[in-house]
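Table S2 (text version). Query chain:
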Amino acid sequence: MTIWTPTLADGGPRYRRIAEAMAEAIGSGDLNPGEKLPPQRQLADRLGVTVGTITRAYAEAQRHGWVESRVGSGTYVRRAAEDDHVPFFRAGQPAGDGVIDISMSLPPPHPLRARGLQRALEGIAASPDALQAATEYQHEAGSEAQRARIAAWQGSHGLPDDPTRLLITQGGQHGIHLLVHNLAQPGDLVAADALTYPGFVCAAQQAHLRPMAVPMDADGLDVEALARLCARQPPRLLYTTPDLNNPTGARLSEARRERLVALAREHDIWLIEDAVQYLPEAQRGTPLIDLAPERTLHIFSTSKVLAGGLRIGSLTVPEQLQERLCSALRSQSWMVPPLMVEAACRWMEDPDSRELLRWQIDELAARRRLALDRLAAYAPLCREGSSLIWLPLPEGRRSSEVQALLARRGVKVSTPEPFCMGSEPAPQAIRLCLGPAETRETLDRALTIVDELLSEPPSSPWQTL
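Corresponding structure-token output:
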């Protein structure tokens, strides 16, 4: 069999010229829909380039929707009948030419995301009943049928599955906003881990609430420290991600969950349990909503499982709060757009969504092993099942300096400052995200740059004068 070998135009990075040659070959018919592309090493040998260049070229072609990668099989020219008018789905927009952005917690790119959404929208377009429902006002919490479908999907993943207690939101951040504005009044004290999700910090600030930063350690939030703080003044609510602290990845132990629930009951504290950072069920602890259903509000969304752009999430709430939160939803936007909810429901029910999640779990596990091996000298922290790497910096290194130096070398990372709940000094560490890189090879390039930078001696402080 003849191996397709392109003639490369002059100018520009070689990986991009190879990808553009691929597009030209597809347009001219030299490469046909469904045709398998040459193995990367063979093409690299033919062109006299590195395998990494070919990997990057294939990833660039896949980003444009010209080809598709099939796990364990190879890379193929995409079929027009399946893919006409469907842009390739990325977890996020490119940060810039040559920049690898591992600063955002996003799911890894895969063509199944585009195809899942495509089939959902095609199914809606072919259903007069679905189209009619999408044009009508619905209950502010979502239609009864759609809430039941979302609850069933959540239940299949070991998450809250009671549709009578579920409200549909425009993503997890919307759920946080609803709760901080409706469970607390301006000036109230609200608590969270000393390092926590910036979306909660921002929502609390906008609601004019006073922050209480609770100390934490390797087992997550220090509940005994919270008890001492409560003895002086208990918070109105506590926000926590018990299975996976963002950014550190710490997990709240079972004993601490029991103690936290007892403390919340003693001081009448609302518990906001954020489970948006998806973990496989085997990697989670007992949900707080199971331990204290009368005072726990559980947040979930499609953003880390299907796609962030859907902006579809759920709130599972105690019965006594349903009317208050429904009223808030109604006053904000009346309802979440039923068209987007229906698209999410159909995507959830598509068998390919289960295949996508299985692939994602395996892919993130492989990326985690890669990162822990590459950065082993710096004692990185990453829970099994997690897509977050918490990297304490060597002595003498400052996170802001490391972030700036990495940016100059084409890698974007996060520093701890946005995650700080209170006014305590931020630790010297950086957070890396395993998901958004186009491929493992791309991620490895970023990790290599991080490793090379940290292995160098820190720059002299005199250079900044």
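Notes on Table S2: The chain has three domains: 1-88, 119-351, 352-455. The CA atoms of residues 100 and 445 lie 9 Å apart.
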